[in-house]
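Example: Amidinotransferase.
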Amino acid sequence: MCPPRYFAVEYAINPWMDPGKPVDTDRALAQWTELRDTYRRLGHTVDEVPPEPGLPDMVFAANSGTVIDGRVLGARFRAPQRAAEAEHFRRWFVEHGYRDVTMPRQINEAEGDFAWTGRLLLAGTGFRTDPAAHAEAQETLGVPVVSLRLTDPRYYHLDTALFVLSEATEAAPARVAYYPEAFSRGSRRVLERLFPDAVLATAADAACFGLNAVSDGRNVVLPVEATGLAGRLAALGYEPVFVDISELRKAGGGPKCCTLELRK
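Written out as structure tokens, the predicted fold is:
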């Protein structure tokens, strides 16, 4: 995670961003701190990457890399305003003992568009990550990749429209939650085939960034407004954990956007 010390909305690179609306950096930092502390209370370790002046979106660490079995595929951003973030995160990986670090040739916004299910890497495209980056991820990370096309610009990254509730194990398949209307018809059919027991989100769930959630297989950290989705998850045995991300959402981000999962 990367603290939003320099958080601001100075440009618009997604439909949620409006530079004309005021942003409270102190409130954003308080919300981020509560998210970080929530992970720690749930027993998780959180590494912090120092923020850099002039990179207000660096708080959205999910876009900085994809890490599976200790291999790191870095990021290459579509928007020039975020391009410099990639090198700061690459240095952090190298300085913290990651030796297998590859920087992509293709536009690749990392866990913004990549979701690991334990056996497959679901890969989004349509607005940010190039389709060619999916093949590059498969070659670099050595895992099978399934491409999914996003069609609603409000849900410009895969992590705004889908998250993994439980990774696959020998005893059970993976389970995901997703908003069907964010995907192309063919991609919906793929998801239906791969995940017949998926939790299907409503328009209201998606609009409050309820699918920009983080699950450890039991606890699901999600925005406080996502009460409908939380109720359905609780009925399945998951433990919803609410956080307020209202200030961070002004830049099109939520719990998952702020969180890169390090699978060592």
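The first strand starts at residue 66 and ends at 68.
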